[in-house]
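User:
Note these tokens:
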Amino acid sequence: MNTEYKFRPVNRHILVNLPTTKELDESSLVLLPEDYKKPEQKYSIVQILAIADDVNFECSPYDELIINTQMLEEIEINDNMYHIVLENYVVGVIEKER
């Protein structure tokens, strides 16, 4: 029996979709030391996929959020990767024109 599962956030969490990283142009590649780590951006823009019922601000699926990148949590369940953020780490909502 093959059962599909759907992740539903609770406890003020928001399920988000991360933006895809842009492909690098091979002609612009620069050699860096192996231990080099690109500095993380403090804030990121993510797209809302699902919202817990108790989130305390107005937002809808497909709106975009500005979040504290360091507070993004990654959860792997049954070979599926989910990204969630607690509402406290959302600093703004970018609403889509309807």
Observations:
- DSSP finds no helices and six strands in the chain.
- The longest strand covers residues 43-51.
- The mean pLDDT is 84.
- The two ends are 41 Å apart (CA to CA).
